Amino acid sequence: MKLYLLIIVGSVALVSPLFAQHPAPYNPETGRFENPYCDEDEKPGISDMIRWKFSYHLLQKPFITDDYRYEVIPPEYVNPPERFHGSMMTWVGHSTFLIQVDGVNILTDPVWSERVGFFGGKIGHQRYTPPGIPWEKLPPIDVVVISHSHFDHLDKATVTRLNDDFKPVFLIPMGVKEIVEEWGVGSVHEFHWWESYRFGSVEFIATPAQHQSQRSLTDKNTTLWSGWGILASDVTFYFAGDTGYFEGFTKIRNRLGPIDVAMLSIGAYEPRWYNGAYHLDPDEALTVFEDLNARYFAAMHWGTFDQAEELLGDPPKALRSHAARRNIDPETIWIFAFGESRAVPPRLKDNRIIYTLDMLNTFKPTLGIQ
Q: Which domains does the chain show, CATH number per domain?
């Protein structure tokens, strides 16, 4: 009997940490997903934001000018290869990257539309910078990962055009499948956090994020949000999607292993009292970068849509400033020009030789050690 109880207690002790790493954010009583790491009841309401916006836009914003110069690669010089068997990424704009790795072409949160929002973008956000890759220069797309259902990340016009032209596999968080299937998309797979999918040599893992979802007045948080780990043969990408800062980034690092490139949002963060729970500011994004222990920081979610009260050009300037204050190597901070491609340098192999004490004693005279 005692042995039986020990087995039960031991099993619970082993399983409990697994449950701690796999939070189930769905509330069956409300039919909505929830963030396990923050109290959403404390978030200010939309009426608070409307009042603040009225006073801010009337009294402050008219006197502020954006002097940032946006770097754009001329379209004639943007020519991603049809296939790339190393590791390369190209920034299209906002949260859209073309990732080419192991001969597989991947898009993250693809948006090519001039406007995003309700009624086909008639009410929503205007694009300020053109897509970095002209549509006609896209290589064949194999896989599309979607982080959540907001219009600037799940764009109907782009999704249906991708489906018509390339028939890629769409990987999406739970609940979004019904939306894209209504648009006529055929190959769709949806995932809870930590579930995975393999395409060729590349593994895709849905990871936790702290955000929300909505496409109408009545569907708030009825679909899940996530980031994505993209694990290829010699490189690992982490695409954070939209997220605020939360406790789970070290767990993501431990689950994915060594991360080569972390694609992290740096825009749509002001005012912090309203956007802080769901969007990183540049300083917090650097904290995430350190939590992940990634090799490179690829900045995204800035300079494309004017969604918050910082200027469109503020995020990269703030990111460089905070990185310098933290003594982070500027070579590890990648701020792409629109349409810019960067190859991911290969990870250095560990070629250290481990010597025993006896072996070291043998080499002492050679090394000049007494």
A: 55-343 (3.60.15.10)
